Amino acid sequence: MRPREVLAWAMYDFANSGYTTVVITAVFNAYFVAVIAGNAPWATFAWTAALSASYALILLTGPVIGAYADLRAAKKPLLVLTTAGCVVATALLAFTGPGTLALAVALLVFSNFCFGSGENLVAAFLPELARGESLGRVSGWGWSLGYLGGLLTLGLCLGYVIWAQAHGQEPQQFVPVTMLITAATFAAASLPTFLVLRERARPAPVAAGENLAQAAFARLAQTVRQAARYRDLARFLVCIVFYQAGIQTVIALAAIYAEQALGFTTQDTIALILVVNVTAAVGAFAFGNIQDRLGHVRTIALTLLLWIATTLIAWSASESGLFWVAANLAGLCLGSSQSAGRALVGYLSPADRRAEFFGLWGLAVKLSSILGPITYGSVTWITNGNHRLAMLATGGFFVAGLVLLAGIDVPRGRRAAGQP
User: pTM score, two decimals?
Assistant: First the structure.
């Protein structure tokens, strides 16, 4: 391992987590439903549809961007570009409010597209920084530091919200400022990544006159043709689609569920997510170290069982105390399940196709990000706002993921990845 670069790499998780924590999970989502969409019957569905549109764009472009990054050894330049796009679009969310639904949707789609594309690119650096036996530990460090970054950004936002409410401000006055805080923190905290992290890959040869985009598609086509060789990785990617559908639903709709089903205020929700970020950081760090000893599949199976328990507790909660229990259990699972999944993809990926296979990982996650939230939004719309039933439906994704996980043979998948 290269400690200095590992820290610089992990700092990107620290930097970008503020976006998901404040915009997607804790503040802007509930603001979108209650203020921008005016608590209309379709408001939750509109939020999930906007997210689904952004994830569909990432799904369509992720593998191609990954293949292009491999061919051109361009992970770092592309990461700079996507980071700048997310930061600028997040700052522009400060100009949204009542009557700006179209603007809010456009900025949300673009910012989340840039965020997800950057997430794929930075993940592809992981196998370059850690050997196979330490992938889980290093991935866990990144996720753990990421939740601390989310904690910092959310803490800054909470401090401002408390001050603003003490001065009689309404959400349409103080929520836009939290978008500026989030954008500024993301930009500043990502600088160590761009200053220290090295691009070790070398451009692949391209035939004379061949278009790089065509070469990227050809490379993807070759991967599809060789899919049988990587059947354990392929099965795990399908598994990811299902269990991440549940995770992405919790991330995108936790604050909405808390406010709509249990009557939480913005300040209550931010305080809850602050504590959950601490729990998530502990979970990512602890399971990252356990994973390399317990095994990738067993670690993920354990977290999926905990996720099933989480959704059942949240579904049955009728007061805030029990929901706090469910939320912190979700935090413990959140960091560990995502860290373990990212590490297993790296462990099963061929060395010369890491960016491409992490593009496929991103594709699976983004497909799940469409499937899960849109299912939740559809259930609430069809049932006239029954968030509890939607939460119960979310638990089914974790059950499906657990069933698929049982058929994965990690040693066989690792041998296939090592074959020329």
Answer: 0.79
